[in-house]
Amino acid sequence: MKLKTKSPSKQRKRLYDAPYHSRSHTLSAHLSSELRNSNNSRTLPVRKGDTIRVLRGDYKGYEGKISRVDRQSYKIYVDGINREKADGTSIPVPIHPSKVEITRLNLDDKWRNKILERKGPKEEEKKPEEKKTKKVKKPRARKKPTKKPVKTEEKE
What share of the chain is helix, strand, coil (3-state, %, to 5)? Predict the structure, then answer.
């Protein structure tokens, strides 16, 4: 999502006021180096079922599957990352997707497969197509404008 302003307060406002359908694109995470090479993409929106590795925070280094994506608060919930409350009950800990890395994609969704196909493999892996030569037209020589003599009236 390209923002039209550099003002931090306006950027925050647009983030918080963003419509629900466009929030999923903001909920993107980096791909691991293997996935980055194979999918020709640096980031993808996170989905339920993706396997991720936490890169920052108290749970750094932990790997697990995404159990829930919360578009309202821009957070994801991962299986196994829980916190115990004072009364002893266990609740899942929300994590921002910018602090994780996707290690395995959930490809059950046909729409996600179409997105990856559209991005396509790297240029090196593509089959070289025959180059079509275009006829280049030479620019026409311009005629130099002729200067008309300026008639001046001479006073005698």
Answer: 25, 25, 50
